[in-house]
UniProtKB/TrEMBL annotation:
Residues 37-187 form the Aminopeptidase N-like N-terminal domain. Its cofactor is Zn(2+). Belongs to the peptidase M1 family. It comes from Sulfurimonas xiamenensis. InterPro entries: Aminopeptidase_N-like_N, Aminopeptidase_N-like_N_sf, PepN_Ig-like_sf, Peptidase_M1, Peptidase_M1_dom, Peptidase_M1_pepN, Peptidase_M1_pepN_C, Peptidase_M1_pepN_C_sf. Pfam families: DUF3458, DUF3458_C, Peptidase_M1, Peptidase_M1_N. This is Aminopeptidase N. Residues 538-850 form the Peptidase M1 alanyl aminopeptidase C-terminal domain. The keyword RNA-binding does not apply. Residues 445-534 form the Peptidase M1 alanyl aminopeptidase Ig-like fold domain.
Amino acid sequence: MSEAKTIYLKDYKAPEFTVKTCDLVFELFEEYTQVTNLMQIVKMDKSAKDLVLDSVELELVEIHLNDVKLEEERYVVEKESLRVLDVEDEFKLIIINKIYPHRNSELEGLYKSGNIFCTQNEPEGFRRITPYIDRPDVMAVFKTTLVASREKYPVLLSNGNTESNFKLDDGRHGVTWSDPYPKPSYLFALVAGDLGVVKDKYITASGKYVRLNIYTDKGNESKCKHAMKSLKEAMQWDEEKYGREYDLSLYNIVAVDSFNMGAMENKGLNIFNSAYVLADEDTATDANFMGIQSVIAHEYFHNWTGNRITCRDWFQLTLKEGLTVFRDQCFSADLNSKEVQRIEDVKALRERQFVEDNSPMAHPIQPDSYMAINNFYTATVYEKGAEVIRMLHTLLGEQKYRKAMDLYFDTFDAQAVRTDDFLWAMSKAGEMNLEQFKRWYHQSGTPKLDVDEKFEDGTYTLTLIQKIPHAVDGSEQKPHFFPLKIGLLDESGKEILEKTLLISKEKEEFLFKTSFKPVLSINRDFSAPIIIDQKETHYGFLMKHDTNSFAKYEAAQLFGIQIIESLMQGNDINDEYVRAYGHILESDLDISYKALLLELPSISALMQRQNVVDFELIYDAIEKLQKHLASLYKEKLLEIYSKFHNPLCVDLDANSIGSRSIKNRCLKLLSSLKSNEMAVMANEQYSNSLTMTDKVAALDILENISSEYSAVAFKHFHDKYRQNTLVMNKYFSLLAASHREGTLERVIALQKDAAYNELVPNLVRSLVGTFTRNYKYFHAKDGSGYKFVADKIIDIDKINPQMASSLAGAFKIYKKLNVQNKKMMKVELERVVSTHSLSKNVYEIVSKIIK
Ligand code: ARG
Ligand code: ZN
């Protein structure tokens, strides 16, 4: 059992010392790396005596204080720190230590991804490189020299600009980098490797020339075009929308295969999971291309929201992440389709964050305690955090929001600040009291809004009651302040009013004078991240008439949910829904948007509404509805399919992407008929289509209707792409998501595939991670799915605790399970939590789940 201790925000203390400059020399060898760290350190709190540096698993060689080698009695090596006793007010410290990057499987600090040396230091990786005051409110000017074999590591990169290059006689060479901007250690990065590069340039609005480089394994250069294009689009967007220019003359991006998360915004040297850089028509889906555009932009936007202005401590993480996600969402909306983007963002929020918010792992976007900070890079901190910024944007309006952002940049540039500082700028420039709004930062759980309507004597009364859930510890929480955008429609479907209501009290009443009872369209654009509970509903009507693209989508979803729930209770399929669905099929809406309207509610959406979850009941009902719609609308679905199926088109414009999206939606629905006809169509699509989007859609269908074609197609796919890990991720995901008999057995066997490697997080996510979202087999009544995943968590925890704890999140549904599943899961949770030398990462998640 772990003895992990809890860290509290209330215990925050300003650093006793700070680092002015940090000059690092890395001597990279195959067996070890030697780090020489020269720091100018200043005492900030004059009462402090000892300097305590964070230091994890470092092999100390020697220490020099003001050029004198320190005797051993002058310092103490503690478990995760190095204490230098009795130091002066200002001094120079040199520490030499060794590390072993090739043995680093946690992928934190300095490690090797294939043959590339790279780093991941956010949040606390730097202390695994050299002893340091490893906290974001200590900002230093860094200079870095890398020395390595010239043949094996011709490319040597770090933050900032190149200062000098040198060659050594023994076949080694070196490069010195210097970064003029003071920064916290989590933004430090280095890369060494034999890399291919794609070069480009960007001229900023004020005319500064910026060199842009994307580095990747040799041979992948042609797959960097989309990433480069996205980077330039992001640079321009930030100039236009936020008035922010890039501040160095060089911007480097490096793609590596082994990476715990999506990417990292290190100053001037972003390091990326290769899944968010590499793409071409043959290997990447449309969703992959969109993902690259948004993650490239996200990391670029961090240069101002994260790097220039950073976080005082890790409790403030949403300060940079919520804000930067909001920025990347707006960027994607501007460059693609606004309506589709908003729906996709809300979908992702509800599938991931709402589930988290209704689990024992629920936390405010600004948590007040943690055991492992790595566990808090969550959908709540990121995606709900972005919704909170979006509400501020809605409350202030575009102009005042921009004024407030300008004030934020002007006031806090080069500082490490708090969410309260951000809210101060919003409140001041926005001329709005945000005291109550702050609750969004400190309360957890998804608020519900009860909606009651009344019409009497020419007055329409809207009564809204906030139902705020209790916090995880059972304590009561207070009503929120938020914008609620509504519309009122007359009986012909004409909009008579659109308004943003300000909700602050637990109970609010709004009166409208009308001569008839209007139809309400509520929480338009998803103006607040809440759950609407409406007594009276007009979903069919709104599916037809709502002019707000989000609300129309929402009506389709909620109507679908209503029908599926009624099927679950043994009722028949409601005709009005079926007609409304048909109406959308016939409509000439934008095709990408239409494809979303035609999507049936997810298992996750239905599960969230059950107090006791029974998956079998849910997917039987969904299947029934799919079959009904597919057989009734077969002709229309086939017609849409053939109209938009264009196997040779590989374009990425909105129309081509939309065409693939809608015809694959139709084919998927038709495949619920499980007929040979559909198998033949999917098989032809697999063979003839040039895009990965179409191939993956076809394989998914073939796998799930267990046709004779499936095995052949999968074998062909495997033979063709087995050398390409990014494509093999899709292969493993498709098979792990399968509803066909024997999925778990195949998943177990796939771990032996030559392309599979438990050390590579992307592969683990594809195979095991996808399996945890396969409701049918993960939640198998005999507990076999739980046992498999628990075994994996225990194994992988020894390799990579972050990866293991993210798998453990799959168990967070525990308390809501039916008796039998719950019993099975409990056994596994107890087995995991009592594992010897379990990481604090996994311990924190699992102990919270079974508490
Ligand atoms: N700041 C990065 C981003 O959002 C995420 C890095 C998180 N890394 C981690 N090991 N938790 O772009
Ligand atoms: Zn980020």
